[in-house]
Structure formats: structure tokens, C-alpha cells
Specification:
Shape: elongated
Number of strands: 2
Oligomer: single chain
Largest sheet: 2 strands, antiparallel
Radius of gyration: 24 Å
Helix content: over 70%
Strand content: 15-25%
Strand order of the largest sheet: 1-2
């Protein structure tokens, strides 16, 4: 796909980006989330230094990302175990069918 030029505003700064067309919506949603979190931190903690606020927002968002990643990996591992059990049961069932046909 082609790249598109996007100009985003984060913490009062403007940043021109080139992103893939299919990623444009995700980038805009990320910018919206970042700016929302910045506003929340400024109101909740009274932090005015943009660098401090950006660091706190980054830490919170990345922590949430790692938490979701770990949960997803655990779910995937569980699903793989279930799939392997089903495969084993199917193989055993096929053996049983062959044995009863003799």
C-alpha cells in the first residue's frame, strides 16, 4: 500500500509523519489516546512539565501493552494445549475405529 502524510499534535507539538494508509487510523487513535492521558495526568497530578507528563504517559501505556501482551500469550498457550489434546484424542479415536473394523 502507499504511504500518506499525516500531521499529528502531541502535547502541543506538531509532528509530520509518513505512515502506511492502512495504519493511518491506528496512528490517529494512538495520538488521541496519548493526548487524553496527558490531559488526565496534568489534571490529576498537577504536573506541568511536558517532558515529565510524556514520560508518565509512556510508562502507563507501555505497561498496559505488556500486560495485554502477556495475557494474550497465556491465552494462546492454553489454546495450543487444548488443540494438541484434541489432536491426540482424534488420533486415538482413529486408531480405535481401525481396531474395531478388523
Amino acid at each position: 500500500m502507499s504511504d500518506v502524510s499525516v500531521k499529528v499534535e502531541i502535547a502541543g507539538g506538531f509532528y509530520p509523519l509518513k505512515v502506511k494508509l492502512e495504519d493511518e487510523t491506528n496512528v490517529k487513535q494512538a495520538v488521541e489516546l496519548i493526548n487524553k492521558k496527558i490531559s488526565e495526568f496534568e489534571k490529576t497530578y498537577g504536573v506541568k512539565d511536558k517532558k515529565d507528563v510524556l514520560a508518565m504517559v509512556t510508562l502507563q501505556i507501555v505497561s498496559e501493552l505488556f500486560k495485554e501482551k502477556n495475557a494474550t500469550q497465556n491465552e494462546l498457550s492454553t489454546l495450543k494445549d487444548i488443540l494438541n489434546d484434541v489432536k491426540e484424542q482424534l488420533a486415538q479415536h482413529q486408531i480405535n475405529i481401525k481396531n474395531t473394523e478388523k
